[in-house]
Task: structure prediction
Amino acid sequence: MTAHAASIHDVAAILAELRRAVDAAAAGADATPSIATLNLVAYVDDATHHDWVLERAARLIEKHPARFIVLDAAANDGGADVATETRGNDGATVVSQRVDLAVGDAPAAVVHSLVHDLCAANTPTVLWWASARMDGSTPLAALAGDVNALVVDSSGPGRGDHAVNDAVAFALANPRVILRDLAYMRLAPWQDMIAQFFDDPALFDDLFSITGLEVDAGSDAEALYLAGWLASRLSWRVRDGATFLDRANRAVAFVVARRGDPRRIQRVRLHSEGSTYTAAVSDDEAVVCLSIDGENAREPWCVPLQSVDIMSLVERATTVFGRDQIFDTTLPTVAGLRGMGAR
Amino acid sequence: MSPADGIATATRAAADGAAPANPLREGLESNRITDPCNIVFFGASGDLANRMLFPAMYNLRLGDIMPTSFGIIGFSRTPETDDSFRDNVHKSLDTFSRSGPPRDPLWSDFAKHLSYVTGDFDDPDCYRKLGKQLDANDEQFGTGGNRLYYLSTPPQVFPKIVAGLDAAGLGPRQQKKGWTRIIVEKPFGTDLDTARALQTEITKVFDEQHVYRIDHYLGKEPVQDIMALRFANIIFEPLWNRRYVDCVQITAAETVGVELRGGYYDHAGALRDMIQNHVMNLLALVAMEPPVSASADSIRDEKFKVLSALRPISADDVAKTTARGQYGPGVIAGKDVPGYRTEPDVDPNSNTETYAAVRFAIDNWRWADVPFYLRSGKRLARKNSEIAVRFRALPHRLFGEAGDAIEQNTLVMKIEPDEGVQLRFNAKVPGPKMHIRAVTMDFNYGSGFGVVSAPAYERLIGDAMRGDATLFTRWDAVERAWEVVMPILDTWLNTRATDFPNYAAGSQGPASSDALLAAEGREWRQI
Result:
């Protein structure tokens, strides 16, 4: 590993240092070294989580060779550090490159210029936005034109209720950029559990007579995304922040209750005209109990809650390309629920 | 796909008479088996059920792979109630489950799906009771009439069970709704005649497509990886033929003796117990042609072709192409262990082989003149199952004396206890001189993927529930394997081995096995 100090204002010096590392690797290798399959740009403005984010990003680029650019908005000395690592990997020479940029005081245009100039050409660029703020005080909007995908966590540490609004607003304003929200990705086990209720063909019709949806969760994003996902699958339209209209124009009440730890859903309940479907975390937090009461009553049953660790989520978010079309159809619904105009 | 598309698809499916598609499923990834079903374990009080099958079922549930609508019925002669059966299953999980003792609420939920039928395997009333329990489960758990029977009893009662199911209207041909499948544990017969007789009895009730003959070896991840290694990589296939392969060695070595199975084993022996099924299945996988698709029948067609191409071994050739052994006393892991003839329930003058080695030839274009050496034995130096493909020697000595240490390249597919792939090749020793030495490139499943392989029974039971027969043995392959080994079996039965015991426990096996390869200028890999 080598480190070279420069200034964020001296892009030429930073590029020269990156070039030098590649040339050095090429000189010691039989073939052209492999450098980057990805530009991973991480924006972090919170000193508390700075190391946490960078440690995970480092593990990621160890598996997926990348040019890793850290936009450190918690540091404002204008410094730039370049570090490279050359290693053999299955016979190939792989060069990992990392550029740490102290951009705390830098205007959005400068940050944009840095990212534009430093990203490897013809290589996808993923921006991991590890910040609680996505508003105009950040360079996010300026970077939108240069990134292919944006990774956010609307219910991550320090995020407020507005975080999901900001993420959705960004996605709707920048349709070219693929949004990956870890808050939505965490829902996969719950989506599967809710789908389980209706795998029995005898209950299929009830799916289209749902009159109410209740979600108890420790943060809003999960509840909103879950409602948005259901709405997208069942052709519900938003009437207001607490009501959908189903495809027969009947009202579906939507109630969110804040309960439990952030990022965790505690309970989902669906009401149909004759039955109530409940999935609730049991005393063992790794198990969810499902029950159906009313006309379609069934014996309750339990399923393991297959939680996915944050590292796997981040890896998936940053390395799986292509749109999740179901998520894309969820976004306007969430915007509607939040009164953001798109319904 | 838009939501409107999804709903339109569901509506179309309903109009076609098919079950409508659940629009909430679209885009969700799941390993879950979708068909609800009942699983009936015949022999539910037996060792296999307690050690392997119940833990497999629970862990399939724990991994959220089991369908959520399921029923498990134990059937055995041992008198039990539903509650005492649940207690026994709990104890089995306490001791043998890879996930540790079961925990509530998942255990309580799982236990609700367990029930038990006590009965003699030839008592028609018991099958009627079983039928009522299956109907009750369909009603209570929504299992839709789907039934999977698992025969984990001694093989002599298989025909009774099949006939009992048929007489009670529980076979597939009398079924009004859903599917019925049957898993048959090995051994499938004790020789060609008994295998054919068993097949006749089974096919009176079950068509071949409903029969899942289990060979747990095929459920091991490294065995499945044989196909991935061969057919998901471009670099091996060009070398996978007589032009480059010198020989193939397949080893299934154990350090254990017969333990509590002396009574069974003394009537079976290594050839029946291991070679005819596990080891010949490995041979078929490693030697088969690329299948036209990954479907069960495409793969099983190719495996059968390999077995069909095995050159018959006549009685006159048995001495030249096989070796047998029986272990005497010895030392394993620093402990004295007894010889086979003093093991419990073993005849003190037993002629049964605890070690078998066979040299097979495959008469086809790919493998002409390439010997396939198969060996399996108990009380050997190390537990080790592997397939080693040894490539031919170099055609020219480029490096003179520096190349004296050059070895033939060997690709080793390791099955147990290590799981992975090793490639042995030659490399220059660092330094000013040109010295060459063989080195090993090692892939290990555990470190490579960072996951622990699920036990074979979990995989195989799950596949049977899904209706995927790829890893189960089709009748034509079973029959062909018996045809091939029968001359050896007959010769060994009719000719007393005067040198038994002929290898010490903890050794590499009998000298006659080494001589088998030495006669062709080769030697076994170290166990």
Notes: Chain B touches chain A at residues 1-4, 6-7, 10, 19-20, 22-30, 32, 34, 61-64, 68-69, 103-106, 108-109, 112, 140-142 (CB under 8 Å). Residues 475-494 of chain B form the longest helix (20 residues).
